[in-house]
Amino acid sequence: MLSLIGKRLMFAIPSLIGVVIVTFLLTRALPGDPAAYFAGPSADKQAIEEIRKKLGLDKPLIEQFLRYTADLAKGDFGNSLTTGQPVATELRNRLPASAELTLLGLLVSVMIAIPLGILAATRPGSWIDHLCRVTTTAGVSLPVFFTGLVLVYVFYFRLGWSPAPLGRLDVFASTPPNVTGFYLIDSLIARDWEAFRSAFNQLILPTATLAIFSLAPIARMTRASMLAILSSDFVRTARASGLSPRAVIVTYAFRNAMLPVITTLSMTFSFLLGANVLVEKVFAWPGIGSYAVEALISSDFAPVQGFVLTMAVMYVLINLIIDILYGVIDPRVRLEG
Amino acid sequence: MTAQPLLDVSDLTVEFATRRGIVKAVQHVNISVAKGETLGIVGESGSGKSVTSYAVMRILDRAGKIAEGSVMFSGVDIKGATENQMRDLRGREISMIFQNPRAALNPIRKVGDQIEDVLRQHAQAGSADRAEKAIEALEQVKIARPRERYHAYPFELSGGMCQRVVIALALACNPQLLIADEPTTGLDVTTQKAVMDLVVELTKSRGMSTILITHDLGLAAAYCDRVVVMEKGRVVETALSADIFANPKHAYTKKLMQATPRLGVSLRDLLPAEERAAMPVQALLTSPRLRGEVDARSASGEGEPASESLIPPHPDPLPASGEREQKPLLTVENLVKEYARQGATASLAKLFSRKPPTEPDKFRAVDGISFTVGHGESVGLVGESGCGKSTTSMMVMRLIDKTSGRISFDGDEIGEIAPNSFARLPLRKSIQMVFQDPTDSLNPRFTAARAIADPIMQLGDIKGSDALRAKCEDLARQVGLPLELLDRFPHQMSGGQKARVGIARAIALQPKLIILDEPTAALDVSVQAVVLNLLQDLKQSMGMSYLFVSHDLNVVRLLCDRVIVMRTGRIVEQGLTEAVLDAPQDAYTKELLSAIPHPPLPVH
Q1: Is residue A191 packed enough to be buried (19+ CB in 10 Å), middle (13-18) or exposed (0-12)?
Q2: Helix locations, B226-374, DSSP H
Q3: Confidence at residue B277, expressed as pLDDT on a 0 to 100 scale
Q4: Strand ranges for B454-525 from DSSP E
Q5: What is the biggest distance separating any 2 CA atoms in chain B, rounded to whole angstroms?
Q6: Which chain B residues are within 8 Å of A262, Cβ to Cβ?
Q7: Residues belonging to chain A with any Cβ–Cβ distance to chain B shorter than 8 Å
Q8: Which residues of A touch B103 (CB under 8 A)?
Q9: For B303-347, how does the pLDDT look when each residue is reduced to its tens digit (9 = 90+)?
Q10: Taking CB atoms and an 8 Å limit, are A252 and B166 in contact across chains?
């Protein structure tokens, strides 16, 4: 098992090198001059030149790249121009916020989508099938910023049930001591119920926003793959040997139907992690998505490169986990590799 | 059959709600099975034989329902039973084995666990001895090393072994009735014999009743006490199997029997009398095989059968020049195809498997075979699955590379040409193929005309849509495909019609050699009879050679001049068809021949 993981990580190295090169070149190719931006609107030409020299942007591209990779090898992602903070620290602080939100959103949507998909597949044409269809269509057609804003408008502004959409904790709660970076878990470890409740309340709306969006692909895939499996020969055999509907659906159909669902899940997860910028914006969530977008707008290279690299690593890890899960579920994958 | 029958189906009608209204798949069917009896239900596809059995089990699709009639199983009214009652019956009182055993098992669950599922459901064993019971069930179906197989997944077992597991699953709870739905279709003849013998032995020893659903008259005759013949959802004849084959009453039964390839008949004999009369005379004149020269009687020296003595001696269809006669069209020498056994993923497999692999790295699918195909000759390539016959045909077809050896076609060394570049050579026109599954081998988005025109558009010299259309119509006429079907899509045609499209496509470029890969294996016997005759006629009129890949020795006997018997990549025997099949020299050929169930059919 360990050597399998090691081998997969080895395979990932060339693609990571590619990501480093491409992001480096892309950020250089983008319009906008970081030196000019950094110097401010009132700076004259000489001041901009000076800053350019200070940032090392006057050097040839190849030299900049070599210096960048040498820093990377030491674990140094460079410093953000706008905040002055090291990128690595910023990412480390912000990644848990994004991950906590995304994981929770995904968990909620899986808990709704999979039962919904299974029920829709076992009762095609029934009201639950129609409900599934309507929910999934709505889920994909409503953009996240819209759902997010509607939720904020209704539950915060109109009804006042939820706290202000301003970050991960309300202003009066204190941040729990950092263990995992996930506030829900950290506050539990510290037995800080106040912080837990606050973090939880802050999470409800953005989680719901993400869940509504990611519900659609998962429910659809579950339904389609369950339908295909339910009409297969071995399900007929199971029914013909008198197994209970529960055993037929759970043990025989669902486990087989899970493979494509897991693939969808991994795609949804990696997509949400980077692309929920809008949700982070709406809820003032201090995640990596909003961080990267802000950096991109201000031509701040280091955070963008750091962000893309982090996402690439995450993607490799998620794919590895998916492959291992595949092997656990389907014995045929173990042999074929 | 005087006692109370175990299963009594009376006046059963099953309806399916489809988009085009209600379809009656089974109409007013009466079937009864006595205790300990083996009943055969015989019919072609669409005759409703499987639907009848699903109705008995009440496992019809959502769209299907029992509309009329009653099904009584040892006093229980199956039509009126609740779902819970049915669940208790299924698997414990009535159980079923299916066609395509590999698909009938859950691919990601150990076979032992699947047997335990059934035992648990019907409370046949406590949790302590359930595993032992499952192993016992595997033992009874004569699986070698059942304790090891208990932990196997279906994909690790062969087709015959999977069917044994399905049987173990079905018999685990000692049911009173076993329904076997085409249990051996798709299995090799020797495996078929082993599986059927096992079913009979187990059911007889437990005093069980069996319903054997099959399209194979020979199988039904060999294993059943009584036979029910179904056509288009109705029972047309019911009789003791000895009687029905000796003296079929219904026209459909007669037609079915006539179409079954068997010893001592010619290709033409398979067709109904009126169709035989409609066949082109020219073909009759020129084909020695059609005139029944391979007939058992003529082979044994009785001379021309009286019925055909009217036909005058024919001119040779291929007045061969000496050179042509000497040089075979296709020569294959020492052909070898090796596959790497596991390749790059070997280490992955090692990680998960319990024991280290003991097999060598290379696997020889084809192991040094040599044969020739002459001009205008049909050569049969027979053997069981995995013997390398398909690999051989693919290499000759230049679809895959050979590992070593020579393939020479019409004077050209085609073995050295890579498959990709061969596709663009004019030589490609000369070797064409008819594939096994007429449905899967046609593009579902192409009309019949488009499918036939495809090779002409790629390699032919006919330009312009009108000329193409005319050529397609020509070809359709040649293969007997009604012209109005040319604009239909594959799903709108029957199996036989699709087979004709496949053949028209293969002959479109007037090839010299056609490779036929089990072209009739997916067809009903009556359709098979027509298609085989068509192939024979086309060969005569176009002077083609056939390499006929098949596992059905009866069909090979009818169509081929020579036969090559393969086993595990090697040729065990080859020679003239009559010589090999009537007096086999090799033990394996003998085994193959003896495994064919012979229906007691009248030699007309």
Answers
A1: exposed
A2: 241-246, 251-259, 273-278, 281-286, 296-299, 322-326, 346-352
A3: 63
A4: 513-517
A5: 79
A6: none
A7: 1, 3-4, 7, 124, 232-234, 236-244, 247, 251-252, 255-256, 327, 329-332, 334-337
A8: 232-234
A9: 334 443 343 444 444 444 444 456 889 999 999 988 876 544 444
A10: no
Q: How far apart are CA B480 and CA B497, in angstroms?
A: 9
Query: Mean pLDDT, to the nearest integer, of A142-166?
Result: 83
Q: What is the arrangement of strands in the sheet containing B431-434, beginning at the earlier edge strand?
A: B431-434, B513-517, B545-550, B378-382, B562-567, B570-576
For A286, how many CA atoms within 13 A lie in the half-sphere containing its CB?
A: 13
pLDDT (0 to 100) of residue B145: 86
User: Between the CA of residue A254 and those of A65, A235, B126, B393, what are the distances in Å?
Assistant: 50, 11, 26, 40
Residue B78 near residue B25 (C-beta atoms within 8 A): no
Choose the mutation target among B178, B352, B354, B355 for the interface with A, i.e. most A CBs under 10 Å. B352
CA A172-A176-A181 angle, 5° bins: 125
Tell me, rounded to whole angstroms, the distance of Cα B99 from its chain centroid.
12
Closest CA to B59 of A198, A135, A248, A294: A248
Q: How many residues does chain A have?
A: 337
Question: Is the separation of the CB atoms in B207 and B198 below 8 Å?
Answer: no
With an 8 Å Cβ cutoff, are A241 and B106 in contact? no
Which residues make beta-bridge pairs with B94? Answer: B90, B177
Quick one: DSSP state of residue B335? E
- What contacts B400, CB < 8 A, 6 or more positions away? B337, B391, B394, B419
pLDDT (tens digit per residue) in B441-481: 899 899 999 999 988 888 887 778 888 999 999 999 888 88
Inter-residue contact A35 to A328 (CB < 8 Å): no
- CA distances to A131, A301, B332 from A76, rounded to whole Å, are 50, 14, 65
Chain B residue with Cα closest to A237: B104
Q: Which tokens go with B9?
A: 């189906």
**Interchain CB contact of B352 with A (< 8 Å):** yes
Residue of B nearest to A7 (CA): B348
Q: Which amino acid is at A289?
A: G
Q: Are strands B226-231 and B404-409 parallel, antiparallel or unpaired?
A: unpaired
Cβ pair B305, B269 in contact under 8 A: no
- Interface residue B193 vs chain A (CB under 8 A): no
Neighbouring CB atoms inside 10 A of A129's CB total 18
Q: What are phi and psi of B42, to 5 degrees?
A: -115, 140
> How many of the other CB atoms lie within 10 Å of CB of B120?
17
Asked if B95's CB is within 8 angstroms of A236's CB, the reply is no
Q: What Cα–Cα distance (Å) separates residue A6 from each residue in A9, A74, A309, A330, A333?
A: 5, 21, 19, 21, 18
Chain-chain contact of B117 with A251 (C-beta, under 8 angstroms)? yes
**Any idea what DSSP says for residue A50?**
H
**Residue B503, token pair as written in the block:** 């053949």
Of B430, B368, B434, B427, the C-alpha closest to B403 is B368
Q: Is the dihedral of CA B296, B298, B300, B306 positive or negative?
A: positive
Q: Do B89 and A242 touch (CB under 8 A)?
A: yes
Partner residue opposite A242 with nearest CB, options B62, B106, B122: B122
CATH superfamily of A94-286: MetI-like (1.10.3720.10)
Instruction: Tell whether B128 lies on the interface with A, counting CB pairs under 8 A.
Output: no
Contact yes or no for A233 and B100 at CB 8 A: yes
Q: What is the pLDDT of residues A93-124, one digit of tens each?
A: 888 888 888 889 999 999 999 999 999 998 88
Q: Where are the domains of chain A?
A: 94-286
